[in-house]
Design goal:
There is one protein chain. The protein contains 6 helices and 7 strands; from the N terminus they run H-E-E-E-H-E-H-E-H-E-E-H-H. The chain has about 220 residues and is α+β, with helices and mostly antiparallel strands. The structure holds zinc ion.
Length: about 220
């Protein structure tokens, strides 16, 4: 089977979505950039299947130019469109994890960016974590909103929906999604105590410079 190793890796991380509680039941989806029959595209979890039942042949390959779902036995996740658009717009994206993780989803329902109440906000790539405006799942409009919120970022919240993170491989993208969930958990606790102190633009600039050098090293 083509891309067998990659298909198995997607299954491994899909199971982790459930076992780490990052995305319960059938929610969330995972993809990996790949090539099949000389076509550039991505492998993505299928629509409506329980993660524990997934087999390598259930993972769907979609070309980057494909606008429509082919008449396949396995349909790709209904949220394939923003995965495709992230791969088209972000050359550095090689894997994507989308999750309805509890705290990120709760924070996303406020439809606001997360300010730098903690310097680890920098993990998402800037001095805040943006929140994509709400649109119905699977639509072109939602995909456009996600791309906008990912400008200069590796992850964002999706209003009244969840979060999405990308990385250079699946391990990287999954870890970032876990970090976003953790930051959102901390933020909800901080908000219960009142308005948290927010780090200044200058302070966040220092952190972002450090993070850049750290990545280089
Ligand atoms: Zn979703």
């Amino acid at each position: 089977m083509k891309n067998l190793r990659e298909r198995n890796q997607i299954i491994e991380y899909s199971l982790k979505l459930n076992s780490t509680n990052l995305s319960p039941l059938r929610s969330g989806n995972i993809s990996l950039r790949g090539i099949e029959d000389d076509a550039e595209g991505y492998l993505i979890t299928p629509s409506g299947k329980k993660y524990e039942t997934l087999k390598p042949e259930d993972i769907v390959f979609m070309g980057l130019n494909e606008e429509e779902e082919k008449n396949l036995t396995n349909k790709p996740s209904s949220e394939w469109r923003f995965h495709r658009d992230i791969y088209v717009n972000k050359k550095e994206a090689h894997a994507i994890v989308h999750a309805h993780s509890p705290h990120a989803t709760a924070v996303s329902s406020h439809g606001k960016p997360i300010p730098p109440f903690h310097y680890m906000i920098a993990l998402a790539g800037g001095d805040n974590i943006k929140c994509a405006e709400y649109a119905t799942f699977g639509t072109e409009e939602l995909s456009k909103n996600v791309i906008k919120a990912l400008e200069n970022r590796y992850a964002c919240l999706m209003s009244n929906h969840g979060q999405v993170a990308f990385g250079k491989n699946l391990e990287d993208a999954f870890e970032l999604a876990q970090e976003i969930e953790n930051i959102c958990h901390q933020y909800t606790i901080a908000l219960k105590l009142g308005q948290p102190k927010i780090l200044s633009f200058e302070e966040m600039k220092k952190v972002l410079n450090k993070a850049k050098n750290y990545k280089k090293g």
